[in-house]
Fold this protein.
Amino acid sequence: MSVPNGFISLPSLSQGSDRDLSIESTLGELPLYNFLVKPICLGVDIARIFEKHPLLPGAILVEQGQFAGMISRRRLLEYLIRPHRLELFLHKPLHILYKYAHSEVLILPDSTPILTATQQALRRSPEFLAEPVVVQVGESDYRLLDVQDLNVVSWQIRGIEAQVRYERTQAQMIQSEKMASLGRLVDGVAHEILDPVGFIWGNLTYVSTYTENLIELLSTYETYLPQIPEEIAALKEDIEFDFVQQDLPRSISSIRAGAERLKKLVMSLQNFCHIDDVYPKPADLHACLDSIVLLLKSRVNSEIEIIRNYGHLPPVQCYVGQLNQVFMNILTNAIDALINQAVVQQFTQDFQGTLPPNIQEKPRIEITTEVCSHKASQTGISDSRWVSIRIADNGPGMSPEVQQQILESFSVEKRSAKETSLSVSYQIVTAKHGGKLRMRSRSVCRLGDSLSVCPEDYSRSGCPESGSPQGYATPSNSSGEPKPGIGTEFEILLPLV
């Protein structure tokens, strides 16, 4: 930091950035005052500069090229108007006045967000609230920011933030209304489909019985009338009666299987489009998971194996429609990872002829449910019980960068800017159900360590690692490396009330 010839540098005001204000705007984007003085400068010279530049908030003291302090316009004039202070300080070097008028100086880097700087400025002592803020724009380069300008810009950003929040809330309401309307439409269509399916299913029993009776009647005729006319024999040959007699029961059985599958699919659609009530209701989570898997069956080709390890779960008080959305999001995420891996495998096999040994396994998604207990931290308080739903795939896992992006998407700031399917799932599990959502991935999974989106409960110490059906261990071997077959795992913990 250099000072021009003389004791005082000419005051100047930087233009700041031309970018529009946003929540992420920093102090470096604002107009900043640059006014440097030496401590040996006379007070009268500073007073003349302040008189000539009425908007100048203060002066930065520089001694031997280094920052030595800051004296504000308000502080200087406050001391000069006191009795007998004019004669004492006006024609004296500035460092004498600075010893008496020394105040608390707030120094912030130019990369500080404006909203953060406003909060720190308001935390100062009441007598220093009007003091300007010193902004460090370089290693030894300091500027001044009027606190009034800072407050005005902060209020503008708060207005922008409120407008963004309002527009986002309005968009969410419109989207929620659209989804609710779509849910009611799909529910109505599913109900209309169920009616004819019910007719088919109900009449299949009678058709099957009638068919068996007719075939039995024809067999009885053939037993007692072995000699049949030639016209009947020719007709039997034309219609392939023997084949029809064998194939008709199989056709009816096939119709029954198709009707059963259609019935399950429609009921899964109804469950997924279920409109939640105001209060949570008991739900069978296994039925919810089965219905979601059935809906995703078109995306799950024969190469992807789905394994269900269901424990004994009681009915869980929840908003079943919202939990269905969580299951859908996590399963879709796992399917996408496995499909991408399958494409890489096929590409490698086509061009290299062999597959790397680490991707020889068949793509697999494993769903595990159980009830676990968390030991109370205080005596006299009963242990809490949780329902655990773990959805794991044996895909390639996530890089640390992707995992960090997922963790950041769960924060309120990132969620307000952009919502993702996983951030919506995190909001539903934590805010709506008081639960926890955890994520573990192969790239960072180590013995006793896991990447968790529940910072307050980083390890799963509440569920013993072995020795009980509630046990759970982070998938790793004795060397600390993750076990083969574990790519990414999401765990949903719901409290049992």
Notes: The two ends are 65 Å apart (CA to CA). The CA atoms of residues 193 and 266 lie 7 Å apart. The chain has 13 helices and 15 strands. Confidence is low (pLDDT under 50) at residues 2-6, 444-485.
